[in-house]
Prior knowledge:
Blueprint: E1 5-9, H1 11-18, H2 27-36, E2 41-45, H3 55-64, E3 69-73, H4 77-86, E4 90-93, H5 113-125, E5 130-134, H6 138-147, E6 151-155, H7 157-166, H8 184-207, E7 211-215, H9 223-227, E8 234-237, H10 239-260
Parallel strand pairs: 1-2, 1-8, 2-3, 3-4, 4-5, 5-6, 6-7, 7-8
Helix pairs in contact: 2-3, 6-8, 7-8
Bound molecules: 1-deoxy-D-xylulose-5-phosphate and ligand LD2JLWAY.
Protein name: Pyridoxine 5'-phosphate synthase
Site (Transition state stabilizer): 153
EC number: 2.6.99.2
Amino acid sequence: xxxxxxxxxxxxxxxxxxxxxxxxxxxxxxxxxxxxxxxxxxxxxxxxxxxxxxxxxxxxxxxxxxxxxxxxxxxxxxxxxxxxxxxxxxxxxxxxxxxxxxxxxxxxxxxxxxxxxxxxxxxxxxxxxxxxxxxxxxxxxxxxxxxxxxxxxxxxxxxxxxxxxxxxxxxxxxxxxxxxxxxxxxxxxxxxxxxxxxxxxxxxxxxxxxxxxxxxxxxxxxxxxxxxxxxxxxxxxxxxxxxxxxxxxxxxxxxxxxxxxxx
Length: 263
Ligand SMILES: CC(=O)[C@@H](O)[C@H](O)COP(=O)(O)O
Ligand SMILES: NCC(=O)COP(=O)(O)O
């Protein structure tokens, strides 16, 4: 089986920083720690509303990263110009809605064909390979290939939500979903259906010559399901890693402050 690359998304460290608009936690510390502890790639998302990663972060990360940087961005022209200047190792085009809490679905590769084709062409002019963040459907995979992308990232958010509900671990599911009221056997059927869709999309993508990544909502409970899909060779994971680090690192943080404040 081919090896799996782990892309660590460090956006969520910047979410915490932006809550106070100070440089703490420092995104470059997150970069160094991820690079030194097994990440194969750094993933960041320069959102139009700059709710976490700022332009200066993206430039600093490009300068200091010892690993390839996968830069997620929308097809907004101003953003694309910044990405062209940053020259990341890859750009992943994602949909953005200003009012969303997080990326809610894949790119509409059919409805926004012309804009996406323009974005891919522009990025290719700057020798930046392009991945498209899409829903796991054969149609979206086919269209991504036709548009000239080198890679697709299959959106696993819907799978992750249903999986969390089935396993009664609501911590990582979207609490507003109507599926919360479904009986267990229905949830189980939906998890299997979702996994079958991701598997079929991954197989088809590989068959037609696309590299295949997956991401969104993947965590310590559900990631093993992605490991079973041989065609997926990269996972981009952020929220769950940063969320876990609050607890795996909080003990040391409290102890050190107690040491410094002991009389
Ligand atoms: C496209 C994607 O799945 C990630 O970029 C993720 O969306 C990052 O987190 P935010 O949605 O909070 O920006
Ligand atoms: N493209 C998905 C990503 O980068 C990380 O998503 P999440 O783990 O923060 O949900």
